[in-house]
Amino acid sequence: MNAKTETTDACDLRFGQVGIACVRVRRVDAAALCEELERRVRAAPQMFSRAAVVLDLSHLLQLPDDGTVDALLEAVRSAGMLPVGLAYGTSETEALASRMGLPLIAKFRAAYEPAAATPAAETRAPEPVARPEPILAPPEAGHPLGAQHHDGSVRSGQQIYARDRDLIVTGAIANGAEVIADGNIHIYGGLRGRAMAGAQGDEKARIYVSDFRAELVAIAGQYRVFEQIPDDLEGRSVQCWLEGEKLLIAKL
Fold it and tell me: Is residue 19 scored above 70 in pLDDT?
């Protein structure tokens, strides 16, 4: 049991719908948190260096005191990321955020069981944020709106987001560019940048790419970063999907 505790990761790092990372703290250990996040920054500096992050304390058995939270925030900063607020949770979290002068980010509403009820190594996908029904019809299978189309390439630094629907891109996604959808993503060109499907937590979302050379792909917050594309996937047509909490990629 002790060995299992020692090998437990310090945190889970999940990616939000508009490029904000959510750091879900799994144990109160500022040094381990800093080390874990530094490792993530080293693995993908273009993605995580100076990235805006939200701190989620919902998985801890007890809410830490102000001094401990301040140490965790400093650990995030020391790792090279920029904490911008706390994930919306309980009234105690709201009071903590108010005392520390931090905003609550409702998009990352806590949806995790307390540590006493859930094994520490287990992760759960965030619950989608409730939104009014779109005033558009008729609904289609899967997502309520028809797919959003983007003709042509997506340039470096550009972001395309398909809210409540699938996204279809007919051109290439450049390095440093980002495409996001609440549903599936279909890319009929080369993916050299980042693609994130199921941005509101849809674990059944998939990503289809005609020419795979991605920096990062993510589904419902679970992501994979590529410093070097595996030889059997580079330049191939692939699909990406979740199996449990593992993001899988296979040739089409």
Answer: no
Residue span of the structural domain in which 19 resides: 8-108
CA dihedral sign of residues 197, 199, 176, 243: negative
What is the pLDDT confidence band of residue 230, given thresholds at 50, 70 and 90? confident
| Structural domain count, the chain | 2
* Residues 56-79, mean pLDDT to the nearest whole number: 93
Question: Where is 210: in which H helix or E strand?
Answer: strand 207-212
Chain mean position to CA 49 = 15
User: 179-216 in b/e burial notation, b at 16+ Cβ within 10 A?
Assistant: bbbbbbbbbebbbbbbbbbbbbbbeebbbbbbbbbbbb
- Neighbour tally for 227: CB within 10 Å: 7
Q: Give the bridge partners for 83, in sequence order.
A: 53
CATH number for position 53 = 3.30.70.260
| DSSP track, 167-209 | EEE-S-B-TT-EEEESS-EEEEEEE-SEEEE-TTS-TT--EEE
Q: Which residues pair with 161 in a beta bridge?
A: 180
pLDDT tens profile 139-181: 344 455 689 999 999 999 898 999 899 999 999 999 989 999 9
Domain-located, residue 35: yes
- Identify whether the C-beta of residue 11 lies closer than 8 Å to the C-beta of residue 21: no
Helices (H) and strands (E) in the chain, counts: 5, 16
Task: Tell me the CATH number at 179.
Answer: 2.160.20.70
My answer on whether omega of the bond before 126 falls inside 30° of 0, hence cis, is: no
Per-residue tokens: 85? 């607020």
